[in-house]
């Protein structure tokens, strides 16, 4: 962790657009290093407030301390930021102990954590963000301007781009192109509004209406304007190892082979068409040629310089793969399949295929059990 400055001058964090809607950023985090400080710096100039909920759900116990907290410096960094780098008192840190859970673990599966930041929000909009999700500063202000011009907007989604192994590589695939790459992140907020579900993120208004059904802005619309969510979810080996250990244990994820995927597809790149962690669907790597949000550029410079003590994934194998003509040809075929799969008929066919796979696995399991015979008495 880079040492935080002893203090931060208010000029370092100018106030957001005068008269614009107030943005509350809500974040859940466990083992968020090295992103934490950079994520907060990126949000601070635009925020009315930032509410960070730290700690583990029970399924994440394998990557948490016995007290339910991050095993890295996440909590210490948050507290140092609050103490040394929060001149306008925008940051609120919430742990399970603050909500009456003395063992430090959050009950349930992240819904309670999302509800914890939501119930403290007093901005005009609630913007959910993960610690590894970033936006360009001008895009945040463009969204704020859109909300100011069109106050009837109730919910906004963003198209995300997943970065893999280093900022110059992205992972894409059929799963993401079928709709999973659109993240519901920004919600109108006011008296009586409630955050009712984490998967998918769902907010209802004071009379019980799902905000998605009122005036929804689709992520593809914003992407056409160049506004996207930069998602660094597969950037560092540490991050991916911990993430997939959690996914392997979480019932909702249904990814019992997640750690095997990490070893074979991420750390070794033995499965170049299964590079996204939702491995049931084909995926691929591409080179990213664009610019990154300034906070990420600074973080990567600090990583490369060795100032953060974070291990990077070697990239020689990625470069070799991207130079391969056969890999590029295979990628083109998969992109064509993705176009079909994302159509209405294609989505129906994929649902039928997934259902057939589930039935096949169930029959195979039943057959194996039957072959074992009764247990000896």
Q: Which residue ranges are poorly predicted, with pLDDT under 50 across at least 5 consecutive positions?
A: none
Structural class computed from helices and strand pairing: alpha/beta
Terminal CA distance reads 59 Å
Q: Average pLDDT across residues?
A: 90
CATH architecture of the largest domain, by name, is: Alpha-Beta Complex
Given this structure, which CATH class of the largest domain is correct? Answer: Alpha Beta
Number of domains: 2
Estimated helix fraction: 25-40%
Count of discrete alpha- or pi-helical segments spanning 4 or more residues = 12
Radius of gyration (CA) equals 22 Å
Coarse shape: globular
Largest sheet: 11 strands, mixed
How many strand segments?
Answer: 13
Word description of this protein:
With 377 residues, the chain is of the alpha/beta class. The chain has two domains: 10-232, Spore Coat Polysaccharide Biosynthesis Protein SpsA, Chain A, CATH 3.90.550; 234-358, no CATH class. Helix content is 38%, strand content 19%. The protein is built from twelve helices and 13 strands. The protein has helices at 36-43, 74-84, 111-120, 137-149, 174-180, 219-224, 237-249, 258-267, 294-304, 316-323, 325-341, 344-372, and strands spanning 23-29, 49-54, 91-94, 125-128, 133-134, 155-164, 166-173, 182-188, 194-198, 201-204, 216-217, 229-234, 283-287. Strands 1, 2, 3, 4, 5, 6, 7, 8, 11, 12 and 13 form an eleven-stranded mixed beta sheet that branches. Strands 9-10 form a two-stranded antiparallel ribbon. Strand 2 (49-54), helix 2 (74-84) and strand 3 (91-94) form a beta-alpha-beta unit. The termini are far apart.
């Amino acid at each position: 962790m880079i040492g935080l400055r002893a203090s931060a001058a208010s000029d370092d964090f100018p106030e957001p657009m005068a008269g614009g809607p107030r943005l509350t950023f809500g974040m859940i985090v466990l083992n968020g290093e090295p992103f934490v400080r950079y994520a907060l710096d990126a949000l601070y100039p635009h925020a009315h407030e930032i509410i960070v909920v730290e700690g583990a759900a029970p399924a994440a116990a394998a990557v948490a301390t016995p007290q339910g907290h991050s095993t890295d410096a996440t909590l210490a960094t948050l507290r140092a930021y609050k103490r040394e780098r929060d001149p306008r008192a925008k940051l609120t840190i919430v742990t399970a102990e603050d909500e009456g859970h003395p063992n430090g673990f959050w009950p349930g599966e992240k819904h309670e954590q999302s509800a914890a930041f939501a119930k403290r929000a007093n901005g005009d909009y609630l913007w959910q963000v993960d610690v590894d999700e970033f936006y360009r500063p001008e895009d945040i202000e463009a969204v704020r301007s859109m909300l100011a011009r069109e106050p009837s907007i109730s919910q906004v989604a963003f198209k995300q781009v997943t970065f893999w192994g280093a900022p110059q590589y992205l992972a894409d695939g059929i799963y993401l192109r079928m709709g999973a790459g659109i993240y519901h992140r920004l919600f109108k907020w006011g008296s009586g509004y409630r955050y009712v579900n984490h998967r998918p993120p769902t907010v209802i208004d004071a009379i019980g209406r799902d905000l998605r059904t009122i005036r929804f802005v689709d992520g593809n619309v914003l992407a056409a304007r160049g506004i996207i969510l930069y998602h660094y979810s597969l950037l560092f080996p540490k991050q991916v190892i911990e993430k997939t250990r959690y996914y392997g244990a979480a019932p909702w994820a249904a990814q019992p082979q997640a750690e095997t995927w990490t070893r074979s597809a991420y750390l070794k790149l033995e499965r170049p068409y299964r590079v996204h962690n939702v491995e049931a669907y084909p995926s691929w790597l591409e080179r990213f040629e664009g610019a990154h949000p300034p906070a990420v550029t600074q973080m990567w410079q600090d990583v490369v310089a060795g100032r953060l003590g974070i291990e990077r994934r070697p990239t020689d194998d990625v470069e070799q793969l991207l130079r391969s003509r056969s890999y590029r040809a295979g990628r083109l075929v998969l992109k064509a399949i993705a176009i079909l799969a994302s159509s209405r008929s294609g989505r129906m066919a994929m649902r039928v295929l997934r259902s057939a796979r589930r039935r096949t696995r169930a029959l195979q399991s039943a057959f194996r059990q039957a072959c074992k015979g009764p247990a000896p008495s």
